[in-house]
Give the backbone structure.
Amino acid sequence: MLIRSSKQRGFTLIELMITVAIVGILAAIAYPSYTKYVQRGYRSEGIAQLNDAVARTERFYAQNNSYKVSLKLIGLVSDDATTTVNSTNSKYQLSLVSSTTTAYSWQVVPQGTQANDACGTLAIDQAGTKTSTGGTDCFK
């Protein structure tokens, strides 16, 4: 003879489905926020690459009284034919947009998954003007 307890053990299918739905909703909200956070973190890599290029260009100007530079002249590459340099994690690609004796402009273009970043391409010139093809406050 079996004796049944009036207490239930375990979960019902409805309870399990409600839990799965709640977890799904939370994940749908959290994942885009996480993705933006990661992109903002990698954006600092592109900004650092820009700042390094500007510092090298200004050092070259102090020594030669000219902004007419190349990636090789400021020591970023060893080959004069190279026109771009990838960042440490290859999330951005640095290039010299223009270079004259009195002015220059550098830009970093997002690569791979970073291309979905709202800020897009970041640029800076000899006057310190920072621009982006995307949103505002991208250099913070």
Notes: Residues 13-132 form one domain. Strands lie at 84-86, 92-99, 104-110, 122-125, 130-132.
